[in-house]
Give the backbone structure.
Amino acid sequence: MRIVGILLVLAGWLIPVVGIAITQSRAARFVLVLLGIAVTLFGIVGVLNKAHLKNAIWKV
Amino acid sequence: MRSRVRMTTCCLWAAICLLLLCGFPALGLAQSASSTQAAAAKPAPAPAPAMDAPLDVKAAQPPSTDDLAAKGDPGGTSTGTVSDVVVSDSKKGLTLADVVNQVGQNRIGINFTWTLITGFLVMFMQAGFAIVETGLCRAKNANHTMMMNFMVYGFGLFAFWVCGFAIQMGGGAPYATLGGIYPLNSEHVVTFLGKPWGLFGTHGFFLSGASYDVGVMVLFLFQMVFMDTALTIVTGSCAERWKYVAFAVSSIFMGAITYPLFANWAWGGGWLSQLGGNFGLGHGYCDFAGSGVVHAVGGITALALSMIIGPRIGKYNRNGTPNAMPGHDLLVVLTGCFILAFGWFGFNPGSTLGASGNGALRIGSIAVNTMLAGCTGSFGAILYMWIRYGKPDASMTGNGLLAGLVAITAPSGFVNTVGSAIIGLVAGVLVCISVEYIERVLKVDDPVGAISVHGVNGIWGVISVGLFADGASNYGGSWNGVSGSVRGLFYGDASQLIAQLIGVGTLIGVIFAISYVAGWVMDVIIGQRVSAEDELEGLDIPEMGALCYPEFALQHQGVAPSGGMAAD
């Protein structure tokens, strides 16, 4: 799960980076940047942090 | 009566003569008629004075040395005159070249002095961070927390000298305010998607070779204390359960790799700073003094490591509800906040890297913006806590002040006072909401609120440049190589906001990923967390070998400091 989370985090960064090269449209770039940030946050909060909480010290 | 008429007539004639002499040429009436005559009458331009010709020093009225020797200069009117201009050739005496060179060196001297002194102020912030973090931790871990803050300075400095500075600034030249710094002129660039992407600098390792340069030294000192600020953020969020050896390795890695990489992309001529020139996104990623480069990098690394290390024992109940674990000394916490606020006057105004030329006089408004945002940040936090919990919480008010200062760090050079007040106020409320969210929803334990103060508000500061930059500041004609002033969304440039958001995406994407993977590898090899026994006992003895407050421990055991039995 951790590796999936890290891959999602990096994929979220790549979306806007590639996006600004393939489109000149300001609105499209804006949407792609927000999408990338959302994917990265999902990778951190939804996947990585969940993986850590599964075996959290206070659950033992 | 007759004399009055004669006087009036004289005045009239005088007025007519004046009009003839001055008025017609001014009105342009005589221009066409006498253009050739005027050209002929115009005196030839004086030949430029020879730069190496001796100047008439007597004309500048140098003070008499005999007078100075006899009377001194109590009024300060005879000190710092033509006599003090450095002469390059004593045989020739003072020349125009000497005067001009002196003017240039004075400007760079002012900028060196400004940058160094503000760097010293930022260095003093380490003391503020140390006591804020130690005060917010429990007394049984005070020595451990203090020693992390103390040694992060040494570990970070060493790593930055070895390679961090070269990676960050090795391709950053020229820096006009510091005399050019031309030795730092090599950036490793790759071509991707048809554009050049600067990734890291390659000059300046160990400050050796051509980097043995006065300007490079000034820049190194200033950038080094910034880097150390980022490192010390992590010690707060991981406090009270972090192995000291893991902290040492982690700090060296961050000072050598993680921080310099992002700093290069933003400040060293790297790809984020070139988003304007390469992709037409405003002025590229703009971060005046480091909300993103310093604070968000520190805060995001803190989040990654806090997730790996896990919460302190006793922080969460079995059902996941959090317990309050108050710090042991609010006095030092709030004193530390004041020290940090003082140091911030080095952090933000010092980031002009000069006080003379290239728009550096804007240091006045940068200092006021810094002051205002800190003020409204503490307002926001105290009001939020007062309304929500019925009491003005001291530690959150301190965090509100710091949050406002963190948030204004990136925009301080680009916004007006109204913008800075709003940015600070939002930061003060945001830090309270964020602390609650991270503690209760994410269940990530952050004893001092570093992730919220520095990470979340660092990101808010980066975004606020893209919203509030008012287009009124124009350092040296351009920023990141794009001419004109930086404007945010509210002042007509939406593309600047996109550049800022790409910076945010890079912070939470790349910097988080690097920090997380490095922390994970260290966890596997050396282990990040102390044993449960050590944690429950307090880390002062198991990790450091000495208590911070030995008398308190003796009293707790029933023995008074003097050796007698303590009263119950």
Notes: Residues 1-35 of chain A form one domain. DSSP finds two helices and no strands in chain A. The longest helix of chain A spans residues 26-54.
